[in-house]
Amino acid sequence: MTELSHQKALHDLHGQLGLLENLDVGLAILDKEFRVTFWNSFMANHSGISQAQIQGQSLFGHFKDLDTQWFRRKLNSVLGLHNPAFMTWEERPWLFRFKSYRPITGNTPWMFQNITLLPLADAKGEVNQIGLILYDVTDEAVSRQALKNANLELSQLSRTDHLTGLHNRGYWEQCLEQEYERFIRTQQPTTLVMLDIDHFKQVNDTYGHLAGDAVLRFISDIIRQMIRSTDIAGRFGGEEFGILLPNTPSSNAEILAERLRYAIETRPIRHEDEQLLITISLGIAAADSAYLDYKSWLDQADQALYQAKENGRNQFVTC
Fold first, then answer.
1. Among 95, 127, 219, 239, which residue has the fewest nearby CB atoms (within 10 Å)?
2. 138-154: per-residue pLDDT in tens?
3. Which residue is catalytic, options 33, 126, 239, 258?
4. Phi and psi of 268, rounded to 5°?
5. Is the pTM of this model over 0.85?
6. Which is the CATH superfamily of the domain at 161-318?
7. Is 239 a catalytic residue?
């Protein structure tokens, strides 16, 4: 090689190193012992560790929070199989706990990262080094999570009664159908409780619809306090509510019904300068294979509710 060619090769090499040094991605090169042989400015700036500090030293010695066992397996597979490996932020949010300085997504403390591991072959074709490329995908990750959260919120809103916060009729009735189908498959006891506010029209007529809304919210709060996390409560319509009790025989449903009836009867509802006293009537029906479908089950509970009102209200009836 002539002197001129040698100088040109050095110039090209320096240019390539300069390019690698200033890439807007992290770049590191590790040898077979996982010692660092190259560490670009992106890695230095975000880690606070310079090339001079980490050169020739084990990567694991400088990053104690790395999942050593897991990451060593990844690196060894690249060396052994001569195939690239990829890690995305969905699998694990980050490999290195770098702080996030993104202006758009500054509300997240850590940088989300995608990682590529590449086998690097020498002139003889032997793989003795691994190239690690780190991409800052914080904006993408946070935007995607925000979209996911927004979709979940919209989904929640679409199945929630805005006044009471319980499930709305459409979603609750879907749950009723699913629970009935589950009962048919498993024969596990499941009970339906329907409840209705006694003389609710008088509340609206006497005190106004805002008072009626306060009563509906009060009933909903009592229901939420008394049911289990596995129970499914919804506003069926107007002043009528439904509660699905999976894995519950009617005898246990009667205990809940009496607790609800007593709590609502004995707790006055404050509205402006008034204290309202109300009662409820309840109908209870256990799931039964003899029903044609979930609507027959619902009709049975409604008949029991109607019977409770006919018997004088402020009570429950089990059919």
1. 127
2. 988 888 888 887 777 77
3. 239
4. -70, 145
5. no
6. Reverse transcriptase/Diguanylate cyclase domain (3.30.70.270)
7. yes
